[in-house]
Amino acid sequence: MARFETLSSDQMTAEQKSVCDDLIASRGSVRGPFPVMLHNPGLAAAAEKLGGYARFKSKIEPRLLEFAVSVIARFWGAHVEWVAHSRLAQEAGMDPAILKAVEDGSRPDFINDDEEAVYAFLTSLLNTTKVDDATYDRCMAALGERGMIDLMAANTHYTVVSMTLNSFRVPVPEGWETPPFGPGR
User: Quick one: 52 and 131 in the same domain?
Assistant: First the structure.
């Protein structure tokens, strides 16, 4: 059960309505962590800006970006993010078998070096808070300097999103299947 109340428009302050309008304009609706964040409109606005950049202006190609978000979501056990971004990763060309391995908590059998480089970088960073030189260099070769910075922007944003979703028990949207893994790590 969710630990927050979704605000109706008549419950919102002028600042909340303005941020809500911005979210709808940029994302089409208010979903994911944003119904929670709207309780603090300054935070919602800041998260929308970082998330808007990380998702829509990143120089990482959609296949790798959505895969990266899926890895982050799975690490944190964030059901809503996993459901949304693993679907987007598949639509962008990720092999469903790779996504299934990530969902199962297994290391995928990679064919593409760029996918393996992103996976190795993120899993090292998330599990140990460090990345060795060889892993960093492989990911840098796959993404370039701008891509590496964009990967860290995605990691930062989707970690905040995942923790918000988990902390406030944001449910998977109606009609979507809840992943088989538990929330959290």
Answer: no
**Phi and psi dihedrals of 84, rounded to 5?**
-70, -50
Q: Which domain holds residue 53?
A: 9-57
Question: Two tokens at 183?
Answer: 């929330």
Residues of the chain with pLDDT under 70: 1, 184-185
Q: How many domains does the chain have?
A: 2
Does residue 183 lie in a domain region? no
- What distance lies between CA 149 and its chain's CA centroid? 16
The answer to whether 36 and 168 are in contact (CB under 8 A) is: yes
In sign, the C-alpha dihedral spanning 113, 163, 169, 39 is negative
pLDDT computed for residue 121 by the predictor: 98
Kindly provide the residue ranges of all beta strands, DSSP E only, lying in 40-183, ordered along the sequence.
none
The answer to whether residues 126 and 88 belong to one domain is yes
CATH number for position 141 = 1.20.1290.10
Q: Looking at the domain assignment, is residue 180 inside a domain?
A: no
Measured distance between the N- and C-terminal CA atoms of the chain, rounded to whole angstroms: 19
Residue 29's CB: how many other CB atoms inside 10 A? 9
CA distances from 92 to 16, 62, 124 (A): 33, 6, 24
Decide: 125 and 131 in contact? Cβ < 8 Å.
Answer: yes
